[in-house]
Amino acid sequence: MGPHTPLVVLFLLSLPKSLQGQQHHLVEYMERRLAALEERLAQCQDQSSRQAAELRDFKNKMLPLLEAAEKERETLRSEADNIAGRVDRLEREVDYLETQNPAPPCIEVDEKATGGTGAKTKGRRNEKYDLLTECSHTISQVRSMKILKRFGSSAGMWTKDPLGPSEKIFVFDGTQNDTAYVFPRLRDFTLSSAARKASRVRLPFPWVGTGQLVYGGFLYYARRPPGGPGGGEDRGDMLQLIKFHLANRTVVDSSVFPAEGLIPPYGLSKDTYIDLAADEEGLWAVYATQEDDRHLCLAKLDPQTLDTEQQWDTPCPRENAEAAFVICGALYVVYNTRPASRARVQCSFDASGALTPEQAAHPYFPRRYGAHASLRYNPRERQLYAWDDGYQIVYKLEMRKKEEEGV
Fewest CB within 10 angstroms: 41, 131, 219, 292, which? Predict the structure, then answer.
């Protein structure tokens, strides 16, 4: 009998004798149920003991393995750190060797007796440019690169107004379009839902290429008139410059660019015929013509009237050029290869003559995604806004005096 039998017996003895016989079968049933419960409890205890023992055995087996895995992880981490350090040193050595490798020399071309014909030009060509400001610095190196996001197609242009008081970001997606995006500030542009925060500016004429420029509250861009480059009727391959008031959204001036037989100035950017640029001195245009299809030309424009004040034939070749920018009256042309590799400033031309080829630096750009579709220099921030295969990038520049020797 089980250990609970005495309690059951006492309980039955306390009952009347007439009921004791009737409860005999109930007592036996309860004893059987209690015995079954005791047996199941014993089995559970045995099973728990076995599981606890198995868990202890598993823990004892796993602890050495975990310790070995931790040691292996530390070893791999140490090796990875060593490899990263070696790669970093190798990259610095490669950068040093690249900076010591001089760029291919620019070949001077003969000055032309006359320039191209067109509207609003004063006819001054290849004369020394007189600086309007005391700007005397030149690029020393590309100090850093920041990739902000990927927006739009592979070619386009984005920029700030270097003269404007606001922090607005202007985005021109594609090489033929008539709608620009305007973001209140850079932070809004970097958001994943950027397009919903942008206002849209519809232009009266679509732009051509990626040579647009925002300057002093106005948008300057090249329009393809009927018969212009890529048009139908032959009009001498001319382009029309448009000056568009961004606040009033009206065209305030236009001018046929005074050069015949325009061709893309950059061998690696076939859609751009006129690349507008701004620096401390004002408004510039980079272009090329069939008259000398091997080299770039530079023009100084009047931002008020779109007059072409001066023009220069530069020694910078078109072949493998992808973009350019102007700093303190000096043109810097960026070259690459196809397929794209690492871009580098390989030719410079100072319209004022203050920067000699021996003094000019030819810095490399950091490693990146593809080829520059556009580069916009902001003289107030001293940095470049780049469109690189659909990625929007900011390059911070390090400057030095033009009189100092470069590498």
Answer: 41
